[in-house]
């Protein structure tokens, strides 16, 4: 039966096509000059260039972290191009009609039409292609409500006060190796500001696409939810099927001011490499949010792509009564390696956090949950509950759990549980006996295993995530 | 023995008891019946002083003392005993150790010498036998792994050992089959005396066939809405709580 | 490299080591002195070792704590020196005890017992390799059932540094009970490592009592290697000191072996205790249950790192690990890290860790029976570790421990 699983596991990556778009791409290599050039391309103010240069200075002194349960050849940072943009973007198209039709076709092929009339009502999209934002939909409608949703490169010019006030406050520019690199070379990303008391009238989403060869993608997202506001933000990512590894080192910062709530969902489907582990995205991402009094940040992620995933969306629960949540499904198959989890830092009183992590390993993959729950000396009455479940499909994969739990407050309560299980022959037999084929059966069992997380996703995303998992598992059954 | 006057109490922000008054004389057995959600269990918790159950108005006197001024353990030492509906399990603390501490705390409060280990063991064994619990239950963790019926019998055993003056039995019949009910009732009846009073809280009349009450009160929406003798319970058995009106029925649903 | 370690290396070099011990010295020289960045020492600082100034202190001879009713065969080391003549002992049939020096280099290598303490976990295994001049080799013949427990007492006198090593081998279908008891005066430094091989169908009952407190620094470890159908039942009890650290490795080298490991730690004042356990399932069909429970009061710090590693092909493994902690004080801290590393799919593995306070319901239940709040808290806290004491097979040790822990607990600050 497990042979059937193996077969079913042979992958099919649907977003692997390459778009034929003329691009302007920097020569590979990284030095101060490249950073100055990126900054100049974006016509950035002096303070931001300074900020980038300081980040670069720190990065040069830092060492690439080795603590994760990941094995990959050393990355040559000089072999990567740090900027690539479709040529047609040079003169900034004013409207969608001026956008290169090939670009629009690319997003359509990915199932993300950028024409507003064709879109799912209620979802505004910022499409980022290689290093630049191509288009942001529904902007007027959002701006009526006072919601700012635009490329961060644009926000730097239009809302310099806001950007300056919050950029780097949650993830400092020298926070870690990859965050420092991102701070030095980030090219675009989304900026969101929800004013006081406003509930964003629609879901906001950004679709990231890496197209160009030998380029890295370094986007930076900053979301500020002012007092009493609410926003749900979705993020999707894909890349073409290429033989060489590509680096993606993003930073996401969330600021939830008093009584605000941010729901951040990701479906990450970067190209994972082929069955021999050739190619695929190296995904090194720093995501962190800060919660002020009564604020609430919820991270939901479905990670199916990337050759390497290094990602720990975290919450700093600074304000009293604030809430942090992390719901994660990470699927690793073939030669994929994932080391992902979260940090919940409880500083305020009565802060609460919930961590539900579902790791699925198949083929030769290794999937690790790594988490930190920290109860600070003043976190009276704080609570954490963590559930980490691993599902193994096949006997060549690995599932690992590395939770760090630290408490300094006697009234704080921490509960952590972890289990492992497999898709058993009995389960499969039962399903098959009831007329389901093995593939469908595994997909059903896996979906059931992930249900707790899927229910946290916005509706459209939940469907997408379920499908994605099904595709990823195709052929993975016995 | 016990005088409750106009008792109002809340849990979190919800007011559960809304002006309950009741007087119990030594030796009397009072049954309190009522639909679910009427506040029956709350009464036991408020009288015993559970954290989170806040008295907002009214007075309670036990043997002439202001009960509400006392801490939970002081109330227990004044002779108030609550037999829990759902006794908590405490792994690692043996039943024996628990009861010995408890009995001696009571004795100390009464100015008596603590019992020696041998004296206590003798008493505990007798009490165990009386409620048909095997002796090894004394060695096991408090209520740890006990069945529902065993937990209830363990409560009655504690009552026998502690010799309280006022016993509140909170749905001591729930979840029991007829044999277990008989054991619980026998245990309670053996403790009836002219000095000892009982409040028997129950949803069904069934228990009152075994423990004959002197008075029956109907509690609905935080107040006693009707009082009578044992025949009132039979009336309730026949007619249910529907006559109490929509509100109580809702609570019962 | 720290000054302390330099001195260790210097002493070892003068000792003209050979065989496995010389290899250990070579390995030791390549080791980095642990800092907070060393994962295995993330929460525990080794500065108490560096700062220990032993030579200036007047030596006062230590005395061992007695365990009532324990009819054991006692072997006493004071400051690393065995106080008895092994030749003069009358031993039950099937039991042999030899000094460490009885094994030649070749025999040591052949026994492949030394060197099981992994330097990756802890450099002090290597320190003990090169410095332990004395120790014991205990062998139980196949089929022998040694009913009298053997107790190894390691005493460190004030101002002394000592290192003792032990190797215990249980032949097929044999039974043995070993108690390792360590105590140290203030200040002292002690390292004690023991390697056990439990033969097919053999049964080892084991206790490690680390009673070091205050400035009695101790680092040590146990390595258990279980062959087919071997059984281990081990209980560890620790108080804390300026630095108290134990590494327990359990290796399933034969199928159908069963390991049960319970640990209790009770820490007060400024004490630190750090327990690292590593369960290696290298073969199929093994079972492990580990339960560690600790109470931390005052300014104390508990560190727990419990790893379960299921190797590829170790199918049908059942492994469970549970770590529960009670933190009693605002100034105390608990750091726990249960880890799973699993490379086989048909296994049942779970771990859990909690840090909590006493349940309100349980406290209320005790209060409603007239027990005072302070007494109720003591009972509940103690009940928490009582559950593990109840599982101790040796009645005399259980009774003694109960009193010992109660005594220690009564001195702790309970909120």
From TrEMBL, chain A:
Top-rank lineage group of the source organism: Bacteria
Pfam families found in the cross-reference section: SUFBD_core, SufBD_N
Domain named SUF system FeS cluster assembly SufBD core: residues: 208-449
Domain SUF system FeS cluster assembly SufBD N-terminal: 143-199
A Gene Ontology BP annotation from the UniProt entry: iron-sulfur cluster assembly
InterPro entries reported in the protein's UniProt record: Fe-S_cluster_assembly_SufBD, SUF_FeS_clus_asmbl_SufB, SUF_FeS_clus_asmbl_SufBD_core, SUF_FeS_clus_asmbl_SufBD_sf, SufBD_N
PANTHER family membership: FES CLUSTER ASSEMBLY PROTEIN SUF, UPF0051 PROTEIN ABCI8, CHLOROPLASTIC-RELATED
Family per similarity comment: Belongs to the iron-sulfur cluster assembly SufBD family.
Protein name per its UniProtKB record: Fe-S cluster assembly protein SufB
TrEMBL record, chain B:
Keywords: ATP-binding, Nucleotide-binding
MF term (GO), any: ATP binding
Pfam families named in the record: ABC_tran (PF00005)
Location of the ABC transporter domain: 2-246
InterPro entries per the UniProt record, alphabetical: AAA+_ATPase, ABC_transporter-like_ATP-bd, FeS-cluster_ATPase_SufC, P-loop_NTPase
Similarity comment: family membership: Belongs to the ABC transporter superfamily. Ycf16 family.
Annotated protein name in UniProt: ABC transporter ATP-binding protein
Gene behind the chain: sufC
TrEMBL record, chain C:
Pfam family, one: SufBD_N
InterPro entries registered for this protein in UniProt: Fe-S_cluster_assembly_SufBD, SUF_FeS_clus_asmbl_SufBD_core, SUF_FeS_clus_asmbl_SufBD_sf, SUF_FeS_clus_asmbl_SufD, SufBD_N
GO BP annotations listed: iron-sulfur cluster assembly
Stretches assigned to the SUF system FeS cluster assembly SufBD N-terminal domain: 7-152
Highest taxon above the source species: Bacteria
Ranges for domain SUF system FeS cluster assembly SufBD core: 156-384
Residue ranges crossing the lipid bilayer per the database entry: none
Homology family: Belongs to the iron-sulfur cluster assembly SufBD family.
Protein name (Swiss-Prot/TrEMBL): Fe-S cluster assembly protein SufD
Species classification: Bacteria, Pseudomonadati, Pseudomonadota, Gammaproteobacteria, Alteromonadales
Name of the gene encoding the protein in the UniProt record: sufD
